[in-house]
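for the recovery benchmark. tokens below, seq after
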């Protein structure tokens, strides 16, 4: 697949490609890149996959070890693929070091604007955990608890993401931008997963019907690996796990969340 003249990793990489965009599921990013290592050692790599590496680490930490001589960037935003293909006006954030100004010129289209950022950690954390928070928002919608409650969960979730991101070294303002707050607004697959579970359907049943439904779940399980760290409160994310995997009702989860404020 090619986007605006640039190769997106799927199966093969053309020899004359100098920019590689990676848009595979998060759990496959490192494996796919390593399997193509000899072909991309001199190319700019742009990660579009949202989530954490299969190890639970940020992509940036894992890939800088495997590709120390490559320039690696991250491109995220509130962008549904179908709308991008149909020319709907969209904005994305390109995060990275030197060279991103030139990449912006290469990627940007009249209906796709690119904002630049130096906050590599923030855009990764925000884009990964917004999928998980989106599940909770979807749970509330599916359970029919109303938009007021959705707004409460949305706002609280955004604050929780920001706290974790800042702890990991991100800038707090990044989470109010396109890659987190903006992307959380979009009715993503993760939110739709939550909607169906909120209606009372089991996760396993819903997951079989959806394409890439587990990005938010994968990020949930990865962030819960930090449980026990005295500097991070994961109660918000534990409630999502309790509803999806432990039969807690959405109403009970919302009530418990309300007790935390």
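predicted aa per position
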């Amino acid at each position: 697949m090619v986007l605006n003249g640039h190769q997106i990793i799927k199966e093969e990489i053309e020899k004359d490609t100098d920019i590689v965009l990676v848009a595979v599921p998060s759990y496959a990013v490192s494996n796919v890149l390593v399997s193509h290592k000899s072909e991309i050692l001199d190319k700019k790599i742009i990660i579009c996959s949202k989530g954490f590496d299969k190890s639970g680490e940020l992509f940036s930490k894992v890939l800088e070890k495997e590709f120390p001589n490559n320039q690696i960037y991250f491109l995220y935003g509130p962008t549904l693929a179908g709308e991008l293909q149909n020319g709907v006006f969209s904005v994305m954030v390109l995060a990275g070091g030197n060279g991103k100004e030139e990449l912006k010129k290469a990627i940007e289209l009249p209906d796709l604007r690119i904002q630049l950022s130096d906050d590599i950690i923030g855009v990764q954390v925000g884009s990964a955990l917004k999928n998980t928070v989106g599940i909770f928002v979807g749970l509330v919608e599916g359970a029919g608890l109303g938009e007021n409650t959705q707004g409460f969960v949305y706002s609280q979730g955004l604050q929780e993401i920001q706290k974790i991101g800042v702890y990991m070294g991100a800038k707090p303002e990044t989470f109010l931008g396109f890659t987190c707050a903006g992307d959380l607004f979009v009715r993503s697959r993760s939110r739709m997963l939550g909607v169906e579970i909120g209606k009372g359907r089991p996760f396993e049943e819903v997951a079989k019907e959806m394409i890439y439904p587990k990005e938010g779940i994968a990020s949930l399980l990865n962030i819960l690996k930090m449980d026990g760290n005295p500097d991070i409160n994961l109660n918000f994310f534990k409630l999502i796990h309790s509803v999806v995997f432990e039969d807690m009702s959405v109403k009970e989860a919302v009530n418990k969340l309300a007790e935390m404020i």
